[in-house]
Design goal:
Strand content: 15-25%
Strand order of the largest sheet: 2-1-5-4-3
Pfam family, one: PAS_4
Organism: Candidatus Methanoperedens nitratireducens
InterPro entries: Bact_StressResp_Reg, PAC, PAS, PAS-assoc_C, PAS-like_dom_sf, PAS_4, STAS_dom, STAS_dom_sf
Distance between the termini: 143 Å
CATH superfamily of the largest domain: STAS domain
Keywords: Membrane, Phosphoprotein, Transmembrane, Transmembrane helix
Number of helices: 17
Number of domains: 4
CATH class of the largest domain: Alpha Beta
CATH architecture of the largest domain: 2-Layer Sandwich
Radius of gyration: 51 Å
Largest sheet: 5 strands, antiparallel
Protein name: PAS domain S-box
Length: about 525
């Protein structure tokens, strides 16, 4: 009964379309007869064609198009005068050409629709045949015809390939996935079809970043393939292989030991670093590598490991087989079993002896540079001068203090002349730091005489409220040296020049004020 109702509705729809097309056609013809020659009313005949072309066979559409062409010609004969006859005639010929071109395009489109419908029906039929079987399959499944067109895919295949049913059905697989051409999968599946044999292989597909395990089964109509995602398994295999290769090829010493410190594993890097082969040291206590002056270090490290602590970049000293000491950086990690219990430890040791040497060399160079930037110069016994040139920031002020106190301590200096003629300005932090330097020098038994204070710096010190009450000052470096002489009780005398020598001044260090 339902089938009859559907057919009746289809018949009613067809009659309605035919009637509408006839009414439109008659209306266009009458309108063409009532309008002046040259008006393009005749283009309206395309409208009924687009309405009825799906309902009629090809020959009937051609016949109707011929009728429309005749109506266009009659319109030329009976339409009221308008534009020139030659122009109107050429327009009518053009209209006929447009009409027939439209018909050809519509029929081509209709054939494409029919072909699509045919393919869809075939795919639907194929799907219905295998759906029941494939519902029970947990693997992804694809079925191809002899032209490598996809005729079926299950839901799992859609998930793994990231393609919907509509994107693959009826399409040639190699065109949808051009990256698979000339791969192991392409060659194996073609071999399966050519030799009518089952194939099985593993393949990585970069666009999806996925490993697949694939099995192909040829049939008389094409080939069926089952595949599954094995990316996780391959990842574990690659990880284990990669870790093993790292351990074997690493220049670092990678070892394993029990929580009691017994060596379990020993890689080539450890052999090279410590000089012991794996055979001669496996089973020995790790304390064999610890210098005698560090007896408590290894027990403390093992205790931290038992608590689950991960030790990173622990810098220490180890002893080679030949007794030579080397600087190393240790990274020690606890090893746990499946239940999370700590059962052992792994150690990665890196030889940093050369780095330590470079650091010491760099430290010495930096020390030399600091000495050059703030030189403390001895001018007389127990008298030193510290000439400062350039801008002083907090960092340089700290260097200055360090250099000065060091010189006072190791040279038993009593007076230091600090000349700041070459310093353009100071801020409050630097000013206070200089005062602190003077106070620290006094605590070490030395007096500081500051010379070369510019008006700007003097004004800054007063404005900032810096305590200068305990600061000894002199106008220039010469005055500072004379002040230092007086502080130490030296007396300056004039030496009469010889007749053949220029005048010079000398300091009589042998005479002192009582």
């Amino acid at each position: 009964m339902e089938h009859i109702k559907i057919r009746m509705r289809a018949t009613e729809r067809t009659i309605t379309i035919y009637a509408l097309s006839i009414v439109i056609t008659v209306g266009i013809f009458i309108l063409d007869l009532l309008t002046p020659l040259g008006t393009g009313v005749w283009l309206g005949y395309i409208l009924p064609l687009t309405i009825i072309y799906r309902e009629l066979q090809r020959q009937y559409i051609y016949a109707i198009t011929a009728v429309f062409t005749l109506l266009i010609a009659l319109g030329f004969v009976y339409s009221p005068p308008g534009i020139q006859t030659e122009i109107a005639l050429s327009n009518r010929f053009l209209a006929a050409g447009v009409l027939w071109t439209t018909v050809i395009l519509l029929l081509h489109y209709k054939r494409a629709e029919e072909e699509r419908d045919r393919l869809y029906r075939e795919a639907q039929a194929a799907r219905e045949r295998v759906t029941t079987i494939l519902k029970s399959i947990t693997d992804a499944f694809l079925s191809f015809d002899n032209q490598w067109r996809v005729i079926y895919m299950n839901q799992k295949a859609e998930q793994l390939l990231h393609k919907r049913w509509s994107e693959l059905i009826g399409k040639i697989y190699w065109e949808v996935f051009p990256d698979t051409v000339d791969t192991i999968g392409y060659r194996e599946l073609h071999r399966a079809v050519a030799e009518n044999t089952t194939v099985e292989y593993e393949q990585f597909y970069p666009p999806l970043d996925t490993w697949f395990d694939v099995r192909g089964f040829p049939s008389k109509d094409g080939i069926n393939i089952f595949f599954r995602d094995i990316t996780e398994r391959k990842g574990m295999e690659e990880k284990l292989s990669f870790q093993a290769s790292i351990v074997e090829s690493s220049d670092d010493a990678i070892t394993g030991k029990t929580l009691d410190g017994i060596i379990l594993s020993w890689n080539p890097g450890a052999e090279k670093m410590y000089g012991y082969s794996a055979d001669e040291i496996t089973g020995k206590p790790v304390s064999i590598l610890v210098p005698p002056d560090r007896p408590d270090e290894m027990p403390q490290l093992l205790e931290r490991l038992r608590k689950g602590e991960h030790i990173e970049h622990f810098e220490t000293v180890r002893m080679r087989k030949d007794g030579k000491h080397i600087d190393v950086s240790l990274t020690i990690s606890p090893i746990k079993d499946a239940t999370g219990k700590i059962i052992a430890a792994s150690t990665v040791a890196r030889d940093i002896t050369e780095r330590k040497r470079m650091e010491e060399r760099l430290r010495r160079h930096q020390e030399a540079i600091r000495e050059l930037s703030t030189p403390v110069l001895q001018v007389r016994e127990q008298i030193f001068i510290l000439p400062i040139i350039g801008v002083i920031d907090s960092f340089r002020a700290r260097q200055l203090t360090e250099q000065l106190l060091h010189a006072i301590y190791y040279n038993s200096a009593k007076v230091v002349v600090m000349d700041i003629t070459g310093v353009p300005t100071v801020d409050s932090r630097v000013a206070n730091h200089l005062v602190q330097t003077i106070d620290a020098s006094r605590l070490m038994g030395a007096t500081v005489v500051v010379t070369g204070v510019s008006p700007e710096i003097a004004q800054t010190l007063v404005t900032l409220g810096v305590d200068t009450s305990k600061m000894n000052t002199a106008g220039d470096l010469q005055g500072g040296i004379e002040a230092a002489d007086k502080l130490l009780g030296y007396r300056i005398t004039k030496i009469e020049p010889a007749t053949d020598l220029p005048d010079i001044s000398a300091i009589d260090n042998n005479e002192k004020d009582d």
